[in-house]
Structure formats: C-alpha cells, structure tokens
C-alpha cells in the first residue's frame, strides 16, 4: 500500500470513524479509479452533500483536460477532494474522498 493511500485512509477514518481496514480499501479504490481516469473515461459513484448517490463519468486524460485548464498557477490541490473532468456535464467537478462509493473497472 502506497503512502498516499495510507494517508487518505487515515483521513477517511478520522472523518467517518469507520474501521481502518474499510478506509484502506476505500482509499485503494480511489487510487485505482484516479489511475484509470488518467487513461480513459471512468464510470464511478459517490454520495453528494444531500445524501443522494451520484453516477459520474469522468476523466483525467491529458489530451482532454490540458486544453481546458485556464489557471496555470501552481495551486496546491485539496487533499480532501478528488477533482475530475465530468464528460457529461462538460466541466470540472470534485467529490470528497470519504464519499466515494465505487467505480466500474
């Protein structure tokens, strides 16, 4: 397990209070989802603020997102979020890591 996955798992555990093994599994799934998004469009699910589950289709492919990035400042990413390009909504979106449910591999 990578250090980033372990850090994410600890953060998810602190926020949710769920068992660490469950948080590690969730953090690993997030890492796999992000890795998949770097090469293709991925279908995944997360819980929205209102408690409903949202189906999303997102990507992090360079050829898709680089032409869309307007702000080239070196802003630090929020470690609590996963940011992706929503291919249905045609805009950048994000979700809180503790709200991630699953992805279709």
The first-to-last residue Cα distance is 19 Å
Question: Which residues form runs of ≥5 with pLDDT under 50?
Answer: none
Q: Which shape, going by the Cα principal axes? A: globular
**Total strand segments:** 5
Fraction of residues in H or I helices: 25-40%
Radius of gyration: 14 Å
Which structural class do you get from the secondary structure elements? alpha+beta
Strand content: 25-35%
- Overall pLDDT confidence: 93
Q: Could you explain how this protein is built, in words?
A:
By secondary structure, this protein is α+β, with helices and mostly antiparallel strands. It has helices at residues 3-16, 20-37, 62-65; strands at residues 42-47, 53-59, 81-86, 91-96, 100-103. Strands 4-3-2-1-5 form a 5-stranded antiparallel β-sheet, covered by helices on one side. A hairpin with a 4-residue loop joins strand 3 (81-86) and strand 4 (91-96). The longest helix has 18 residues, at 20-37. The two termini are 19 Å apart. The model has no long low-confidence stretch (mean pLDDT 93).
Concise summary:
With 105 residues, the chain is α+β, with helices and mostly antiparallel strands.
């Amino acid at each position: 397990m990578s250090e980033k996955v372990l850090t994410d798992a600890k953060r998810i555990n602190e926020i949710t209070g769920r068992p660490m093994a469950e948080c590690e599994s969730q953090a690993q799934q997030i890492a796999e989802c992000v890795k998949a998004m770097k090469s293709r469009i991925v279908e995944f699910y997360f819980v929205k603020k209102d408690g409903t589950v949202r189906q999303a289709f997102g990507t992090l492919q360079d050829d898709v997102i680089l032409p869309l990035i307007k702000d080239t400042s070196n802003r630090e990413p929020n470690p609590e979020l996963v940011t992706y390009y929503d291919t249905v909504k045609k805009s950048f979106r994000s979700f809180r890591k503790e709200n991630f449910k699953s992805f279709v591999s």
